[in-house]
Amino acid sequence: MSNGEGLLMCNYKMCRKKLSGYAWVTACSHIFCDKHGTGKFSHFPSVCPACNNTLCGKLDIIRTELNPAEEYKAIVLAGLAPETVLDISSRALAFWTYQSGGDLSNSKRKHYHSQHEWKRSNMLL
Hints:
two-stranded antiparallel ribbon; alpha+beta; globular
C-alpha cells in the first residue's frame, strides 16, 4: 500500500464515493469528499452531515491532502517530541481503523467517540 487514496469513502450518505485528492476531516471522526466538504462546511458554525455535531472550533474541520508530497511528509513532524509523534500516529491509526470498519463494534465506536470528546474538552480548558 503506497498511499491511502481510494481506501476511505465519503461519509456523506448520498455520496459514499472512494476518496482521492483532498478530503475534509472532522473532529467527530468523519471524512468527506472535497465536493461535499466544500459545500457543507462553507459556513460557520457548521454541522457534521454524518452525526449532526456542531463544528465550531478552529480545528473541528480541516481540509487535507490524502497523498501529500514527499517533501511535506519529510518535515511535517520534524522538531516534535517522540511522544507527540506517537500520539499523533496513534490517533491517525484509530481514525483509519474506525473509518475502514476495522474490528470496532458499536460499543467500541461509542467508547472511541467519548474518549475523543473527553480529550478534546480537556484541550479546550
